[in-house]
UniProtKB/TrEMBL annotation:
<feature type="site" description="Important for catalytic activity">
    <location>
        <position position="213"/>
    </location>
</feature>
<dbReference type="InterPro" id="IPR028892">
    <property type="entry name" value="ADE"/>
</dbReference>
<feature type="binding site">
    <location>
        <position position="11"/>
    </location>
    <ligand>
        <name>Zn(2+)</name>
    </ligand>
</feature>
<feature type="binding site">
    <location>
        <position position="9"/>
    </location>
    <ligand>
        <name>Zn(2+)</name>
    </ligand>
</feature>
<feature type="binding site">
    <location>
        <position position="270"/>
    </location>
    <ligand>
        <name>Zn(2+)</name>
    </ligand>
</feature>
<dbReference type="GO" id="GO:0016787">
    <property type="term" value="F:hydrolase activity"/>
</dbReference>
<feature type="binding site">
    <location>
        <position position="271"/>
    </location>
    <ligand>
        <name>substrate</name>
    </ligand>
</feature>
<keyword id="KW-0862">Zinc</keyword>
<keyword id="KW-0546">Nucleotide metabolism</keyword>
<comment type="function">
    <text>Catalyzes the hydrolytic deamination of adenine to hypoxanthine. Plays an important role in the purine salvage pathway and in nitrogen catabolism.</text>
</comment>
<dbReference type="Pfam" id="PF00962">
    <property type="entry name" value="A_deaminase"/>
</dbReference>
<dbReference type="InterPro" id="IPR032466">
    <property type="entry name" value="Metal_Hydrolase"/>
</dbReference>
<dbReference type="InterPro" id="IPR001365">
    <property type="entry name" value="A_deaminase_dom"/>
</dbReference>
<feature type="active site" description="Proton donor">
    <location>
        <position position="192"/>
    </location>
</feature>
<protein>
    <recommendedName>
        <fullName>Adenine deaminase</fullName>
        <ecNumber>3.5.4.2</ecNumber>
    </recommendedName>
</protein>
<feature type="binding site">
    <location>
        <position position="189"/>
    </location>
    <ligand>
        <name>Zn(2+)</name>
    </ligand>
</feature>
<comment type="similarity">
    <text>Belongs to the metallo-dependent hydrolases superfamily. Adenosine and AMP deaminases family. Adenine deaminase type 2 subfamily.</text>
</comment>
Amino acid sequence: MPLPKAELHLHIEGTLEPELAFELAARNGVTLPYADTEDLREAYRFDDLQSFLDLYYGLMAVLRTERDFADLADAYLARAAAQGVRHAEIFFDPQAHLARGVSMGTVVEGLWRALGDSEARHGVSTRLIMCFLRDESAESAMDTLMAAKPHLDRITGVGLDSAEVGHPPVKFREVYEAAAALGLRRVAHAGEEGPPEYITEALDVLGVERVDHGLRCMEDPELVARLVRDRIPLTLCPLSNVRLRAVDALADHPLPAMLEAGLRCTVNSDDPAYFGGYIGDNFDALPLTDEQQRELARNSFLAAFLEDDEERRAAYLAELDAYGT
Ligand SMILES: [Zn+2]
């Protein structure tokens, strides 16, 4: 039985495996520019950010209906459960779908079909986090937040993703203020390819409670001290960092040093269909002791947005404590 854990950094669009992509394409009459699943799997071996993004956004064309989004999320939850995930906080990118003429309602209600059944089917509790594409305008982000208003009973928080450099957190100050006023939790990708200053800005200007990636904090000792002092969780994604060249090799990954520094790190899979593995594979990718793996799992439950269900958090922590004993 795998170590029980929470996944806090997972883009649902990044869980689209070649087999499901072809199945949805056939269902929706979409023609993919690949001969078969093997040909498509070959394309998943991209070697830079742009080729990843081209493939990532291109393949979204197969996601059209509520049923498609439900099938996507259900397939992820089954895989996550098999790797020990007990709680998943799932990102989605509404702008990428709205731009294709797919409505907010189709996306959110489709995902919810799977999330609503997840505990019964997979034993995984869930939260949904709506991300803004930071390379789109602040106005587009605000429009997206407004479009989500009828669905806020399904959405726990907001996040910020896509190409980081040149799109500092401050660009989204107003939309994050509006999200806070609506009672939404706040996270943001920061310090992945962007500088440590983006992490500070995400904390100070956007009021984020967790930092997604955040590995470049290690370049700024004062920032590290602050993150340690305030117990700000960081959602690390080792396999993603190597595939997108944020670090050169797994052997160079700063995660062990970050744990050593006292940072509240978690391990997650980001876009697992594209980056070579789900959460358990990310745990296994680094040379971690059993104690470190347990610390990471513990951090994931402590960092989860479970303030409305502390009993559940306590139960997960108790399950972790009992694991392997
Ligand atoms: Zn991400």
